[in-house]
Design brief:
The complex is a heterodimer of chains A (226) and B (804).
Chain A (H helix, E strand, L loop, with lengths): L19 H4 L14 H11 L25 E7 L2 E7 L5 H8 L18 E4 L2 E4 L12 E3 L13 H8 L9 H14 L5 H8 L9 H14 L1
Parallel strand pairs in A: 1-5
Antiparallel strand pairs in A: 1-2, 3-4, 3-5
Helix pairs in contact in A: 4-7, 5-7
Chain B lengths: L14 H6 L14 E7 L5 E7 L1 H4 L4 E5 L25 E7 L2 H10 L1 E6 L6 H5 L26 H6 L12 E5 L2 H6 L3 E9 L2 E2 L8 E6 L2 E5 L8 H9 L6 E4 L15 H12 L5 E3 L3 H7 L2 E2 L2 E9 L5 E13 L6 H13 L4 E9 L13 H19 L3 H8 L22 H12 L1 H4 L6 E2 L2 E13 L6 E6 L5 E4 L9 H13 L6 E4 L18 H28 L6 E4 L2 E4 L5 E4 H11 L14 H10 L4 E6 L9 E13 L5 E11 L6 H20 L33 E4 L17 H17 L7 E2 L3 H9 L14
Parallel strand pairs in B: 1-12, 7-29, 10-11, 15-16, 20-21, 27-28
Antiparallel strand pairs in B: 1-4, 2-5, 3-4, 6-16, 7-14, 8-13, 9-10, 9-12, 14-15, 17-18, 18-26, 19-20, 19-25, 22-23, 23-24, 26-27
Helix pairs in contact in B: 7-8, 10-11, 11-20, 12-13, 15-16, 16-17, 19-20
Classes of the chains: A alpha+beta (226), B alpha+beta (804).
Chain lengths: 226, 804
């Protein structure tokens, strides 16, 4: 079995770099990179909303010719941050995985992958959900907002984002995208929350750095400014 | 002296990326042709691999390669291997698989047939010390820094001589003392003697230790999650088996470390080694939460005993301390050492004996966690100080003030060798905190009942060493006049990479908006800095940036001399210009001087470098040579003694005697951290440290099933870090704000003790609410409180670990 060679013989590969010297092993074959830059391709996809099904070898979850039912992907329409994407999605695939690995929206973080921490929080029709524990196929017809969709199109930060900066709320920052989405969702539904209401609304988002007080100050500050 | 930047807030340049989601962590790495790596973790706590059959795994569509333990470097028996054929804890990586998709990699791991022979295991250190007790590793049960790997068993007599709730005390590999301990006890008015247990607990970093790597043109590129951009690199290069110059490292963000990602670690090297096998193909490894629990290290637990003597005024006359450290299955971290040091500095005993034995167990590998040893010390000993205060009829702040180092640290000492401190103001922090908190008035309400709730008050101190010397600084002024501060400090979330960079700007008189911080990886040409850990960054790297900026300043003045004559003393720096002192006339802008530096070459532009800088700094300086005026130097400023970070915390709490619930009503911490460089940064660390501390006191613990050696705490839920709903809406912070004389700016810094004094103060407050009941076990979980309130026995055996 060829363990290291091209994994899709239909693709035209350019010559890769000479790897043999650094590989340091006898029968290791050089891999050859795809000529399409993943980053550029993703940028095109994310910006234009073109169909990305059929390019599944690029997006890492496809398992072509799998006998396992998990590998049978179906194309679906997924509306994320106002753009509709047509993506091939496996039946067991979570929304967190889809946005991170198929749409290149890595702002959404996977902290626990089991609905405990909230780092993966996104909005679906305005409601906060844990994207790590939501099947993508169930999001058909929903309007998904990730952290990348919070700031205005011209880059102007949402008041919650600006207030988090002003209050130095993020520390390590890994939970921050979830905190931002949770804070924005709260203010969308309750523009003038009490501190206690804000605390409850944010309580699905863990912060190991313990920056809760600074996030809460940020939410309350943003509420005053909206 | 008034500073322009030091002591003022600023917006760290990376924080916007954190709120927009554009910040790239290790798991956000993507590359053409990337494959996914997963590993098979041991299902047993201790085993030997007899055979690995990958035939079925290879049939999984998308399978690419398998990496076996014999294909990676193996450390000594107590080392921490990347892959192993003798797993020593549940979940330890044995064999890794690469596949086209993450699903295929997972399927291939599931299809591996790993034939394991189960070996004896032990999860409680005392069990291993018993006669005939099991050794966690073949051939021995003790190790640790400064402790040779070997076997240590205590006699049955030792165990029989100890009461059920008393720690047996046999031979120990670590023992030191100073003064006359017996004479100290003889003069004591009160002697407190107790045994205690401190649980292990997970670091709970929100970002698991995912990593990615590829090879290109003979260099290995790694994206890793680490607290320390510079300091992680030499170890990572060793793990991969390459020279430092052949490593290209990217670590712009770290999603939480708390000591568990202090530098490099074995899993960080796994994608690099798989990539090497695949001819350099990009490899991405997403570590799951369960894998993070198994391999992400944990704080060491302790079983301990102590006897403390106090004079009638509360002054400690003697301390005898004995601790057994749960070391995990590797050399681990010398938390035990830090117990002795921390006690000796916080309480300044005139006579002290310290004994310790680090014992190997088949549990998650132990690493440093925020205040490793020091914070357990606060939790284990502070409630005993309260016990003594009660017996002596003393106020609980007063008994701490009489023992604490203060007055700048005059006469204060630390550790076995009773070395000096750079400065210390813990006594002042206690006094200031008590006044701000209103301790005297409020603590009169101790024990006040409101329905089922009882009010309690607690005060406690904590310590961590907070500074080092001997690292390098590197700055550059480019011909556009911009100051570039190159820093190898990691981005853990304290923003001290930024606050210490401001020292260079302060020295050169720069406006902050004309400074660029170059950080985040090898490509930024960073100097060799100490790691972003151990409360040290503020002290250590304000010194490195100071010496680099002073070098740049000297070069600026030299350039003025070469252009306009005279001597350096004839000129000074003002508003990013060089001016003549005599008439304050501008002779040159920094931008013009930077261009002149390039033209003059030599050391001005970084072509000639100091002999004493680290090879990493040398390579970085050579890379930027000729692009501007280069300031580069090793920190050789004298440093005599231990730079301490010290804190005093105050807690008001309501304890529900029916449910065991805790409501923290008010909290204050006061830091002795030299001159406060970044006030909001200190506020964030004070509050965040407290939240971590409250969790350490109340909920966080690892639990291993003693029958099967497998972990029962494998998610956030099981060893719960506290949430928005568990902590007060507002808390208070403060600082003594007195300078450390051994830092050019008076800066010291603080990180760890902010957790330790908060957790210990909370433990003291809970005991206070319960009329002084001592649990002598951390964490104090709700059922322990209910049992204590009801006068019922606890469900755990005294001194047992892994209790639920």
């Amino acid at each position: 079995m060829d363990l290291t060679g091209p994994y899709d013989p239909t693709v035209d590969y350019p010559e890769g770099p000479a790897i043999a010297e650094i590989a340091g092993a006898g029968d290791i074959k050089p891999w050859r990179p795809l000529h399409v830059s993943r980053r550029n391709f993703l940028r095109g996809v994310v910006c234009s909303g073109i169909v990305i099904g059929g390019s599944s070898y690029l997006f890492s979850t496809a398992t072509p010719a799998r006998a396992d039912a998990r590998g049978v992907e179906r194309m679906m329409s997924l509306t994320v941050n106002g753009r509709t994407h047509h993506v091939d999605v496996a039946p067991n695939e979570t929304l967190g995985y889809t946005v991170r690995y198929r749409l290149g929206l890595t702002g959404t973080k996977i902290g626990c992958n089991q609905a405990e921490c909230g780092a993966c929080t996104v909005m679906a029709d305005g409601q906060t959900i844990y994207s790590c524990s939501t099947l993508t196929h169930r999001m058909r017809g929903k309007d998904i907002i990730t952290v990348e969709g919070i700031a205005a199109a011209d880059g102007t930060l949402h008041p919650v984002q600006q207030a988090f900066i002003d209050e130095l709320a993020p520390q390590c920052g890994f939970c921050t995208p979830g905190q931002v989405v949770a804070g924005v969702a709260l203010l969308n539904s309750n523009p003038n929350p009490t501190e206690e209401e804000a605390r409850v609304a944010m309580s699905g988002n863990l912060c190991r750095c313990g920056a809760y007080e600074h996030y809460l100050r940020g939410v309350m500050k943003a509420a005053r400014e909206i | 002296m008034a500073y322009r930047l030091i002591g003022n807030d600023f917006t760290p340049p990376d924080v916007e990326a954190k709120v927009t989601g554009s910040a790239k962590y290790a798991e956000d790495f993507r590359a053409d042709g990337m494959v996914h790596v997963k590993f098979f973790g041991s299902p047993m706590p201790h085993a030997r691999v007899k055979a690995i059959d990958a035939d079925e795994a290879m049939k999984i569509p998308g399978f690419v390669a398998v990496l076996l333990p014999e294909e990676v470097k193996q450390p000594d028996v107590t080392g921490f291997p990347i892959l192993t054929s003798e797993p020593k804890y549940h979940g330890q990586p044995i064999v890794a698989v690469a596949a086209e998709t993450e699903q295929a990699a997972a399927d291939a791991v599931a299809a591996l047939k790993v034939d394991l022979e189960m070996l004896p295991f032990v999860v409680d250190p005392l069990d291993s010390l018993r006669p005939g007790g099991i050794n966690a590793l073949e051939g021995g049960n003790i190790s640790g820094r400064g402790v040779d790997f070997g076997e240590l068993k205590w006699t049955g007599k030792v165990f029989a001589a100890a009461a059920e709730d008393e720690l047996p005390r046999g031979e120990t590999p670590i023992e030191w003392s100073f003064g006359d301990v017996e004479a100290g006890f003889a003069e004591a008015a009160v002697v407190v003697e107790d045994s205690f247990v401190h649980a292990t607990n997970s670091h709970h970093a929100m970002e698991p230790r995912s990593a990615a790597a590829f090879w290109e043109n003979g260099k290995c590129h790694v994206w890793g999650s680490t607290q320390s951009t510079s300091f992680a690199q030499p170890g990572l290069a060793r793990l991969i088996g390459i020279e430092l110059k052949d490593l290209v490292f990217v670590a712009e963000f770290c999603g939480g470390g708390f000591g568990g990602k202090g530098a490099s670690y074995p899993l960080m090297a796994l994608p690099a080694l798989m990539s090497k096998k695949l001819g350099g193909r990009p490899c991405h490894m997403r570590v799951s939460r369960a894998e993070e629990y198994a391999n992400g290290m944990a704080r060491s637990g302790f079983q301990g005993w102590t006897k403390l003597g106090f004079a009638s005024d509360g002054r400690i006359t003697a301390a005898d301390i004995f601790v057994v450290q749960d070391l995990g299955p590797t050399t681990g971290f010398p938390d035990f050492n830090n117990v002795g040091n921390a006690f000796s500095i916080v309480f300044q005993p005139p006579n002290m004996r310290f004994r310790a034995v680090p014992v190997l167990t088949n549990t998650v590998p132990k690493g440093p966690q925020r205040g490793p040893g020091e914070n357990q010390t606060a939790n284990m000993f502070e409630p005993l100080i309260d016990k003594a205060a009660k017996e002596l009829g003393l106020d609980r702040v007063a008994i701490r003030e009489v023992n604490a180092p203060g007055n700048g640290g005059v006469g204060a000492k630390i550790g076995a060798k009773q070395g000096p401190l750079t400065s210390a103001f813990l006594k002042e922090a206690l006094t200031q905190g008590a006044e701000t908190f209103g301790w005297a008035e409020r603590s009169a309400n101790s024990g006040m009942r409101t329905g089922p709730k009882a009010r309690g008050y607690g005060v406690a101190s904590a310590y961590h060493s907070a500074g080092s010397s001997g690292f390098d600084g590197l700055v550059r002024i480019t011909p556009d006049g911009i100051l570039h501060v190159h820093t190898g400090v990691g981005n853990l979330g304290t923003y001290s990479y930024g606050s210490t960079s401001r020292v260079a700007a302060e020295v050169l008189g720069y406006d902050w908006d004309r400074v660029v911080i170059e950080r985040g990886g090898t490509a930024k040409h960073i100097p060799f800095n100490l790691g972003q850990f151990g409360s040290n960054t503020s002290f250590t790297m304000s010194r490195t940036n100071y010496v680099a900026a002073m070098d740049a300043k000297a070069k600026l003045l030299d350039i003025a001399v070469s252009a306009h004559g005279g001597s350096p003393d004839d000129y000074e720096l003002s508003d990013e210009k060089i001016v003549r002192k005599s008439d304050m006339g501008v002779v040159m802008t920094f931008a013009e001087a930077a261009q002149m530096a390039i033209d003059m070459g030599d050391s001005y532009a970084g072509h000639v470098l100091p002999e004493d800088i680290h090879e990493m700094t040398r390579a970085s300086a050579m890379a930027i040579a000729g692009t501007g005026l280069v300031g580069v130097a090793k920190d050789t400023i004298p440093k005599d003694g231990t730079a301490p970070a010290l804190t005093a915390s105050f807690v008001e709490v309501d304890v529900d005697l029916e449910t065991g619930g805790i409501e923290i009503l008010d909290f204050l911490t006061v830091s002795d951290c030299g001159i406060v460089n970044h006030p909001t940064g200190l506020a964030a660390q004070s509050r965040g440290g407290a939240v971590m501390g409250f969790g350490l006191a109340l909920t966080e613990r690892h639990v291993y099933d003693p029958a099967y050696g497998i972990p029962n705490a494998v998610s956030f839920y099981h060893g719960k870090p506290l949430s928005y709903l568990d902590v007060p809406l507002t808390t208070q912070w403060g600082a003594v704000n007195l300078p450390d004389p051994q830092n050019p700016m008076g800066i010291r810094g603080v990180g760890e003790p902010l957790q330790g004094s908060a957790s210990a103060a909370l433990l003291c407050a809970i005991s206070d609410a319960l009329g002084g009941h001592l649990f002598n076990r951390i964490p104090v979980v709700s059922d322990m409180i209910v049992n204590a309130a009801a006068g019922q026995p606890q469900s755990h055996k005294p001194l047992a670990t892994n209790t639920v």
